[in-house]
Amino acid sequence: MKIKNVFLLIAMVIVPMTGVAQGKLFTLEDINYGGNNYRKMSPENRWFAWWGDELVKLDVDGCYLIDKKTNKEKILVGIDEINTWAGTADSLMFRHFYGAAFPYADKPYIMLQNINERMLIDFKAKKVVWRQACRDEQNEDWSKDSRAVAYVKNHQLFVRDADNNENCLTTDGSREIVYGSSVHRDEFGISKGTYWSNDGMKLAFYRMDQSMVADYPQVNIDTRIAAYEPDKYPMAGETSHKVTVGVYDVKTKSTVYLKAGDPTDRYFTNIAWSPDSKTIYMFELNRDQNDCRLVSYDASTGERISELYRETSDKYVEPSHPIQFLPWDNSKFILQSQKDGYNHLYLFDKSGKELGQLTKGKWVVMEIYGFDAKNKSVIIAANEANDIQQNTYSVNVSNGKLSRLDNGRGWHYANVSESGAWFYDNYSEPAVPRIITISRTDAKSAATADKTPYLKAANPWKGYQTPEFSTGKIKAADGTTDLYYRMVRPANFDETKKYPTVVYVYGGPHAHNVDARWHWGSRPWETYMAQKGYVLFIIDNRGSENRGRDFEQATFRRLGQVEMADQMKGVEFLKSLPYVDQDRIGVHGWSFGGFMTISLMVNHPDVFKVGVAGGPVIDWKWYEVMYGERYMDTPQTNPEGYAETSLIPRAKDLKGKLQIITGYNDPTVVPQHCLSFIKACIEAGTQPDFFVYPGEPHNMRGHKSVHLHERITQYFEDYLK
Asked: Which of 188, 252, 467, 580 could bridge 269 with an S-S bond, Cβ 3.0-4.6 Å?
């Protein structure tokens, strides 16, 4: 806790990071994602793969073995050698090693894949030792243990075994019956649809029947006559899809389904296998998302074995992580839960008996990186040192002792070796673009090791006019909760002048804007705007992530209301600053931030002169079931909340200049939101501006992002400056 207090003193007092007023100016091609020069303006980085406990640098021309103590490199294998041994030519040639893997700690095998084949190449024997066809695979999931691969092709689920025998597991796959893909709209931590057992001989997979879900009428305008290309989109309060879980046996080529009962209005998530590959564990959640159960099943028969754990809430329970068994003790597993108010680790035995809470405190476990088997510890990311940091820790499973493994500052991403004995740490600090170090996970060794950086990136913005980045805290609208903000001011900032100010906002769950990364996590567009003479202000209101259950759930059933109150405390703070022009305050945000932008514009029309709302939610009844009902319940059970948060009745209150931007084919916040608000504005006689990106989804891809941010910038230049 001493570290935490020291950091806060530094953060609140010595916050400005001032750039020189002289120097080159940034363009959006330099600093915006998708810009032609963006890579050169990003901090230097490296890419790695673990070969057991050996660290290998992946590069274009070769793979390099790194001496973890000295940071010295030596060539392991070159790209020309690999292509010679593989016999590849023309379009099948391997052109870099960025996708390479070293799946076996005890074998000198490198795994590479082109459009036709995946192959294991013995770089010591200098030959291909195994090949497997891989053409036309979607959602491919390869098991290093059996060398079988699961994939989707033409809506059907396939498994190709190590001998290249292709087996089709399904026959009824379609856009309505979906196999082997992410389900439940990627909520609850779900990011894929297939899960191999530890021995690679059984495959658990999702089957999603969405035939009963309404189609949203998306349109493709690139055909000669615009074509109807609907999305299945279950809106809040409407009929949702039904998910079941199958298990395929590679040996017997047979499939069983878990006997979990009627899947109607239920969510199945965080599938995990027992170490012996005989049992499947799955969290089961009711549609109200307030009753969560961990249930085990026999993988051979699909029979339900037992309920191991249950958690309920008067608001919602949000299972986002599978259980993880201890590598040194197959009878115990770790479960993550917010039941004490913060996401922490709990130790259970396989019968479901809770053996103890491993981590505790008013801070959040953000991720489990892996296990240090020798020292019987779990390696985690957490913000124990400070609310806006992410640091790496070792937690002793026997006594719960927490040991920090990094420098206690900044925002760290760790990657742990196969045994858990080593990790590389890729991190930045507010004034440090990037540092990479290599260390042991043993707490004692980590504390005493000489962490000479493997890489210390130079400042890629050297020679440019860099704005001032700072951070601080204010109180939330409840008068007690601390909120963190970031401020970006022009490089030649003059306190005696009055500046137009833009509030950038997101504000929704599972996201934050302010942290202890380079430039306090500032977005490049903020730099571009500061260069043009604006002050930028960003605050993480209640409802955002990494501050605990009650902080996030303060918005329950009334999305946007508590968030607006906190954002207005930020505006109150801005108005106390002599250099903020109170007559020139704007607001901008995307997605949930678009919803917040319009909410602020219509609820506080005399405060915000200009707003730009991207991909905005307008009424939560048009948003998807899983996310929408978690935070708002259904329109049927919470009509007052939906009415209060809807922006349709507030269209008449728009005074300032508002530009709404959306991807024409947005499958996340469907165009019905924007169009309905514009219709309401027409009826009310208010005048928003509207711009669409044909063919684009929820976020603009590639170079279109440059066009987007130039448009956003120009709107503020035209109406706020």
From this structure: 188
DSSP-derived secondary structure letter, 304:
E
Task: Name the CA radius of gyration of the chain, rounded.
Answer: 26
Q: Is the Cα torsion angle 35, 40, 41, 42 positive or negative in sign?
A: positive
| C-alpha pair distances (Å), 122 with each of 50, 85, 90, 104 | 16, 9, 22, 11
Task: Provide the Cα torsion 42, 697, 704, 190; round to 10°.
Answer: 10
Rounded CA separation 387/4 (Å): 9
Of 510, 698, 703, 707, catalytic: 698
Residue 707, SS3 per DSSP: helix
Report the SS3 class of residue 420. Answer: coil
Q: Distance between CA atoms of 10 and 652, rounded to whole angstroms?
A: 46
pLDDT at site 22 = 75
Cβ contacts of residue 438 below 8 Å, gap of 6+? 55, 66, 68, 71, 422, 423, 424, 425, 454
The length of the chain in residues reads: 721
* Mean pLDDT computed over every residue of the chain: 95
* Structure token pair of residue 677: 């608000």
**pLDDT 10s digits, 506-563:** 999 999 999 999 999 999 999 999 999 999 999 999 999 999 999 999 999 999 999 9
Of the candidates 666, 673, 705, 709, the residue annotated as catalytic is 666
Cα 8 to the center of its chain, rounded Å: 26
pTM over 0.85: yes
Catalytic residue among 197, 544, 591, 599: 591
CA distance 712 to 612: 7
pLDDT in the model for residue 443: 74
Q: Does 591 qualify as catalytic in the annotation? A: yes
Crossing angle of helices 561-575/592-603, nearest 10°? 70
DSSP classification of residue 260: -
- Report the pLDDT value the prediction gives residue 448, as an integer from 0 to 100: 59
Query: For this structure, is 698 an active site residue?
Result: yes
The number of beta carbons lying within 10 Å of the beta carbon of residue 234 is 21
The CA angle 434-437-443, to the nearest 5 degrees, is: 130
d(CA 465, CA 389): 27
Sign of the Cα pseudo-torsion (684, 685, 689, 693, in order): positive
From the list 203, 211, 320, the residue with the least C-alpha distance to 251 is 203
Retrieve residue 696's tokens.
């684009």
Dist CA 516 CA 105 (whole Å):
35
Q: Are the C-beta atoms of 183 and 271 separated by less than 8 Å?
A: no
274: which 2 tokens?
């027992």
Would strands 365-372 and 354-357 be described as parallel, antiparallel, or unpaired? unpaired
What element of type H or E holds 609?
none
Give the residues of the chain that fall short of pLDDT 70: 1-21, 446-450
